[in-house]
Amino acid sequence: MLLGKCLQNKPAPHHNFPLKIVCLRVSFLFLSGCTMSANKFFFVFKDSLIESDDASMSIVSLRNPATRNATKYLFRRTSKRACNLYEVNCFNEQHRSWFINESVCSNGKIFLPTPIDPLFLVLPYLVEHCSERAVPLDQILIDDKFPCTSQLAEVLPAARLSLIADEKRAGSILALKYNETKALEWLVSKCHRLSKVIGTEEGPTARSLNYIKEEKENEKDEDEKSTLHTAFGIVSDYLSLEFGRKLSVALGFPEDENISKKRKSVVDLESAVVKRIKKEENHDTTPIKLPAAEKKVSAKAKALAKAASGSKSISSFFKK
């Protein structure tokens, strides 16, 4: 039986769950939104996230920077006014449950919070609201469908925002104007740093995209390109398809590699499914002509036809 702590807290509106953190020697917690075991959730935390007694956490829904759909994120706040943002990854398999003390939790999902750069989430809002003019940050981070978007300001110091935007000050007011050149330089730099980390790792991560670390000097450039391509694939998962193309060009990849293969395959698959459905609909609505079935003639009808073969028809008597 797994050790854990059931935390009973009533969920706040908009699916935001304030969670009281209890220091444990193990790296996982059972978090609950109500007293029913079906609504408990199993989280795996890094030890440093749950060692502080004064830390508080809240799970909110924000727009995914790539798909623009709702995605769960976790804010961790401490008494020192430090705030960090984490992406909540979910691993789900069928026929999985958890044993919690003397009860069984039917929700067998595993939630794993991982750090994420908040600039990825802010980037689409900067492109949308302040490409032409400078706008204060509190007027940029506004989303009617996701009211918690404004909380991103807590994890974004001005020094970080200057990496993708130009600052303009008027007294105590700080306004930002999106700078695409700065944004691409920041993303290119991030890809190169990530590429170096991948190159020093061993295991499945380093071998992705058929990357195999070898000591041959003539293959060094090819290895660096492979790791950079892997880094680009990871970073582009947090970008729109259009911005991913721009980053690919900035990294010097060929034109046919501009689109992430993974997302392109998804688009192609969806297109193929739509075409198949339309084809099936057309096939269902098109009338199909079947050959006329041969009429069976009984023996009595054959005998009557034979007897009447030599007689004249009634209409012949009325002819002149």
Task: Please tag this protein with its features.
320 residues; alpha+beta; eight-stranded mixed β-sheet; three-stranded antiparallel β-sheet; 13 strands; 21% strand
Please state the overall shape, judged from the principal axes of the Cα atoms: elongated
Question: What is the N-to-C succession of helices and strands?
Answer: EEEEHEEEEEEHEHHEEHHHHH
- Percent of residues in β-strands: 15-25%
Fraction of helical residues: 25-40%
Mean pLDDT: 75
| Biggest sheet features | 8 strands, mixed
The value of Rg in angstroms is 33 Å
What is the count of helical runs?
9
Q: State the end-to-end distance.
A: 109 Å
In terms of per-residue confidence, which ranges show pLDDT below 50 for 5 or more consecutive residues? 1-28, 33-38, 207-215
Strand order of the largest sheet: 1-3-4-10-7-6-5-2
Tally of strands: 13
**Structural class given helices, strands, pairing?**
alpha+beta
Can you describe what's shown?
By secondary structure, the protein is of the alpha+beta class. Helix content is 33%, strand content 21%. The chain is built from nine helices and 13 strands. The strands form three sheets. An eight-stranded mixed β-sheet has the order 1-3-4-10-7-6-5-2, with no helix packed on it. A three-stranded antiparallel β-sheet has the order 11-13-12. A two-stranded antiparallel ribbon has the order 8-9. Strand 6 and strand 7 form a beta hairpin. The radius of gyration is 33 Å and the shape is elongated. The N terminus is likely disordered.
